[in-house]
UniProtKB/TrEMBL annotation:
Highest taxon, organism lineage: Eukaryota
Location of the region described as Disordered in the Swiss-Prot/TrEMBL record: 1-21
Residues covered by the Heterokaryon incompatibility domain: 88-306
The organism's taxonomic lineage, starting at the top: Eukaryota, Fungi, Dikarya, Ascomycota, Pezizomycotina
Coiled-coil spans in chain: none
Name by which UniProt lists this protein: Heterokaryon incompatibility protein-domain-containing protein
C-alpha cells in the first residue's frame, strides 16, 4: 500500500471543492469576465481596513493549522514591526507573469480570495497541523489596489525582512520529473518532523550547512543509493543539493566524485559531452542543478533586497531545504577553483556552464549581502542598477524601487523613496537626473541604450535616459564598470541643466569628429566569428593607414588598432573569494603587451581552425604569455559593439547602432566620449530649466529662469571608446572650443 504522506500531489480532502482558477478567466474581455474581475477586486478590497498613515504598522498572515490536503485558511492581523519582531516568517518568491499565472482560492478573513499557485504551494508547505504560523507575504499583506498604501509599505520592506525570524527563499514546488529523494525520508527525517508528518504535515529533508555530520550522512546515503540500478527522474534535485553541499565543504574532488562516469571510462568528468550518457547519473545531477537555477526566483529584482536584508535565509525547493550560507560557500569555492584550474576558459568540464551560472548568480547576491552586513557605506544607486540590470520585474518601476533600500551612499543627498503614482517613463527620467546630481557626472549616460533580445525600448523617454527594464549582456555590465579607468574630459566640469518641457539635457563639450566608416557588429558567439569580424575591422584600419601614415596621436595604426580592440586595458586578475565575490582589475596597456596580443592572434587562429571541438582551451604557457588577459579585455570591449573610423582618422568601438554621419563628442563631466546623431529642433517656450551641476564650488540642484529658446537637439547613440581621446587629449588640441549640446 502506498503511504499517502509521500504523494507529491495529494488529492483534495474528501468533500472539498476544487479551488483552481485561471487568472485569464478573471481578466476583462467579455462583459461577464469584466463583471467577474470587478467582483474579485471588491472581494479582495473587503478584507482590508486602512493602516494608520505614516506608521510602522504592517499586516501579518495568521496561517491557521491544517493538514496537507486541507483548504488554506488565513487571517490578517495588524501590528507594528517592533511588536512582530522575531515572531514571523518572511517569504521571498515570485508572483508569476500577470495574465498567465494559475490562481488558487484560499479563505482569508472568511472571504474566498485568489492567490498565485506559487504562493499557494508555499503556504501549504509552511502550514503545520498542530500550530498557527505567522507569515508576511506581500501579495496579501499589502493592499495592492491602494497605490498610497503600496508606496508606504514598499518603503518599509527593508525593516520587514530585517525583523523576521527567517526568510524562506521559495524556488518552487517539485514536478513529476524532479527527484527530490523521497527514498531517504524514513532514515533521515528528524523525529520532530516525523511526528508532525504523522499529524498531516508535508515531508521535508533539510541540510544544515555545517560540519555536524548530518549533511555528510545525507551525501553518504546518496552515494550508496546511487550505485543501485533503477529508473530515476530526469532532474536529480537531491543530487544537486548534495553537489552544492560538497562544494560548500571546500573540496572539489568530493564534489565531483559522485559524478564519476564509471560505466563509460571509470574517470570523472573531464570528457567531451559526446562521451556522456544522457540517462547517466552525472547527466541527471547536472539537469537537477539546471532545474534549480532555471526557477524564476533567480531572475526577479525584489529577491535581492529580500535576501540581502534577512538575518537568516533558507532555500526551499519542494520538500528540500538548505541554508543560504551553504549555497554561498559552494559558489565561492567553485569560483575560486574555476579560475585556478582555468575551467572557465577550457570549457571541458561537463557541468561548467551551469556551475558558472550558479556561482555568478549566488555570489552576485551574497556579495551585496556581506557588504550590507558589514555596514559598508559605498554602495551607490547607480552601481546597484548596473549590477542587477539583467533581473526582471513585473512592474518596470521596481527595477529602481527594489534597490532603494540597499543603497548606502546617497552621495550627500536625501534618499529616494518609491512613488507608484509616477509612470515608468517619469521614474526613469528622475532616476537619471538624480544620478547626475548625486555623482556630479554624466556616468549615468553610459551603457547600451538600445533594446536587446527582441525587447522594445520605452518610447516615451528621451534618448539619453536608460531604460532599466531592458536586460543586457553580463559583459556589458563589466564594460561599464571598467570605464573608471578613463578620464576623457580630463576632470573638467561645467554646468548641466534639464529643460522640463521636452526632457532636454543641456551639456557642454567638444565636437571632435564625424564617423565615416563602420565595421560589422562583433557577436562573440564563437572564436571563429570573432576572428572574422576582427579581420574585417583590420582591413578598414589598414585602408586608412595607407592614406594617412601615422595615427592622429602619432603612433602606428597597428598599435592603435590592437589597443582599440582591448579598450587600451588589460585584465590583471579576476579574483573570487568568499568576502567580495568576483572582482575584476584592469591596468592600461604597455608596449610589452604587444607580444601578448600577437600570441592571442596566433592562439585564436589555431582555435578557430579546430573544426572538431572549437573549445577555447588555454595552457599554462598561454596564461603566462598573457593571452587570457587579452582575450577577456577584448571580449569586454567589443561584444555586441561596432568598430568605427572618423574623418580625421580616429578609430574606436561604439554601440551596435553606430552609423556613418554620427558625431563624436567629448563631454565635460564625463569619463568617456559619446556618439550623437542630429535629431530635431525643439522650442522650450517657457519650460523651466533645473540646474543640475554647477562648476566646482557652486551649488547643485538650484532652479534657473524659464527658457524660451529653440534648440537644435541630438539623439544620444551611446558611449564609445576612441583611441587617443580617453584621457583629456581632446581639450589639449589647438583651437578646441567647448560648445553646448542639447540631447533629447
Amino acid at each position: 500500500m502506498t503511504d499517502n504522506r509521500f504523494n507529491k500531489q495529494p488529492p483534495p480532502a474528501p468533500g472539498s471543492r476544487p479551488h483552481s482558477v485561471r487568472l485569464s478567466q478573471l481578466l476583462p474581455g467579455r462583459r461577464s469576465d469584466g463583471f467577474k474581475l470587478q467582483q474579485q477586486e471588491q472581494t479582495i478590497a473587503s478584507i482590508y481596513s486602512p493602516l494608520p498613515s505614516g506608521s510602522h504598522t504592517i499586516r501579518l498572515l495568521d496561517l491557521l493549522p491544517g493538514k496537507w490536503g486541507d483548504d488554506i485558511n488565513v487571517r490578517l492581523q495588524e501590528c507594528t514591526i517592533a511588536e512582530a519582531r522575531d515572531r514571523y516568517i518572511s517569504i521571498s518568491y515570485t508572483w508569476g507573469e500577470p495574465g498567465t499565472v494559475k490562481q488558487m482560492l484560499i479563505t482569508c478573513n472568511r472571504s474566498r480570495v485568489p492567490i498565485s499557485e506559487n504562493l499557494y504551494t508555499l503556504l501549504r508547505r509552511l502550514r503545520r497541523p498542530e500550530r498557527q504560523t505567522l507569515v508576511w507575504a506581500d501579495a496579501l499583506c499589502i493592499n495592492q489596489t491602494d497605490p498610497s498604501e503600496r508606496t508606504h509599505q514598499v518603503g518599509l520592506m527593508g525593516e520587514i525582512y530585517k525583523n523576521s525570524k527567517e526568510t524562506i527563499i521559495w524556488l518552487g514546488e517539485e514536478a513529476d520529473s524532479d527527484d527530490t529523494g523521497y527514498r531517504f525520508l524514513n532514515e533521515y527525517i528528524t523525529e520532530e518532523d516525523s511526528i508532525s508528518m504523522g499529524k498531516g504535515a508535508p515531508p521535508g529533508v533539510a541540510w544544515q550547512g555545517n560540519d555536524n555530520g548530518g549533511d555528510q550522512r545525507l551525501l553518504d546515503a546518496y552515494l550508496a543509493n546511487s550505485k543501485k540500478r533503477g529508473v530515476r527522474a530526469a532532474n536529480d534535485i537531491f543530487g544537486a543539493f548534495c553537489l552544492i553541499q560538497s562544494f560548500a565543504q571546500g573540496t572539489s574532488s568530493s564534489a565531483l566524485k559522485f559524478l564519476e562516469e564509471s560505466e563509460l571510462t571509470g574517470q570523472y568528468p573531464y570528457l567531451p559531452k559526446t562521451f556522456l550518457d544522457p540517462s547517466s547519473k552525472a547527466s541527471r545531477v547536472w539537469a537537477g542543478l539546471a532545474r534549480l537555477m532555471s526557477r524564476p526566483w533567480w531572475r526577479r529584482i525584489w529577491v535581492i533586497q529580500e535576501t540581502v536584508l534577512s538575518r537568516k535565509a533558507t532555500v526551499h525547493f519542494g520538500m528540500l531545504s538548505a541554508p543560504w550560507s551553504m549555497f554561498a560557500r559552494a559558489a565561492s569555492n567553485f569560483a575560486r577553483e574555476r579560475h585556478s584550474l582555468c575551467l572557465d576558459l577550457a570549457g571541458t568540464l561537463r557541468g561548467h556552464d551551469i556551475l558558472t551560472q550558479f556561482s555568478d548568480l549566488v555570489l552576485q547576491i551574497h556579495d551585496t549581502r556581506l557588504h550590507h552586513q558589514a555596514s559598508v557605506k559605498d554602495v551607490t544607486l547607480l552601481s546597484l542598477l548596473w549590477k542587477f540590470r539583467p533581473l526582471e520585474a513585473s512592474d518596470k518601476r521596481d527595477k529602481v524601487f527594489a534597490l532603494l533600500g540597499l543603497t548606502t551612499d546617497w552621495q550627500g543627498m536625501p534618499p529616494l523613496s518609491p512613488d507608484y503614482s509616477a509612470d515608468v517613463g517619469a521614474v526613469f527620467v528622475q532616476t537619471a537626473i538624480r544620478n547626475i546630481l548625486m555623482s556630479a557626472s554624466l556616468s549615468v549616460l553610459s551603457g547600451d541604450l538600445e533594446a536587446t533580445l527582441n525587447r522594445k525600448r520605452l518610447t516615451d523617454i528621451p534618448s539619453w535616459v536608460m531604460d532599466w527594464a531592458l536586460p543586457c549582456l553580463p559583459v556589458e555590465i563589466e564594460r561599464v564598470q571598467s570605464q573608471k579607468m578613463y578620464n576623457a574630459s580630463g576632470g573638467r566640469t561645467s554646468e548641466v541643466s534639464f529643460h522640463h518641457r521636452h526632457s532636454i539635457l543641456h551639456v557642454q563639450g567638444l565636437l571632435v569628429d564625424q564617423v565615416i566608416a563602420v565595421g560589422d557588429v562583433s557577436r562573440h558567439t564563437q572564436i571563429s566569428d570573432t576572428c572574422a569580424v576582427i579581420r574585417q575591422w583590420n582591413l578598414l584600419a589598414m585602408a586608412f593607414e595607407e592614406k594617412r601614415g601615422n595615427y592622429p596621436s602619432g603612433c602606428s595604426y597597428y598599435d592603435a588598432f590592437w589597443r582599440t580592440l582591448v579598450g587600451n586595458l588589460v585584465q590583471m586578475a579576476s579574483v573570487a573569494n568568499s568576502i567580495d565575490g568576483k572582482q575584476t582589475a584592469y591596468r592600461k596597456t604597455t608596449a610589452e603587451d604587444t607580444e601578448a596580443f600577437r600570441a592571442w592572434r596566433m592562439w585564436s587562429r589555431c582555435i578557430s581552425r579546430d573544426t572538431i571541438g572549437r573549445t577555447a582551451s588555454f595552457t599554462q604557457r598561454d596564461l603566462d604569455e598573457g593571452i587570457s588577459s587579452i582575450h577577456y579585455a577584448l571580449k569586454t570591449a567589443t561584444t555586441s559593439r561596432r568598430f568605427f573610423l572618423t574623418r580625421s582618422g580616429y578609430m574606436g568601438v561604439g554601440p551596435k547602432t553606430t552609423q556613418p554621419g554620427d558625431k563624436l563628442y567629448v563631454l565635460e563631466n564625463s569619463k568617456v566620449p559619446f556618439l550623437v546623431r542630429p535629431h530635431s529642433v525643439l522650442n522650450c517656450n517657457g519650460g523651466l530649466s533645473m540646474m543640475l551641476i554647477e562648476p566646482a564650488g557652486g551649488d547643485a540642484g538650484g532652479l534657473s529662469n524659464c527658457c524660451f529658446n529653440a534648440h537644435s537637439c541630438h539623439r544620444l547613440v551611446g558611449d564609445c571608446f576612441a583611441y587617443g581621446l580617453m584621457d583629456g587629449e581632446a581639450f589639449e588640441r589647438p583651437g578646441a572650443e567647448v560648445v553646448a549640446l542639447y540631447l533629447a
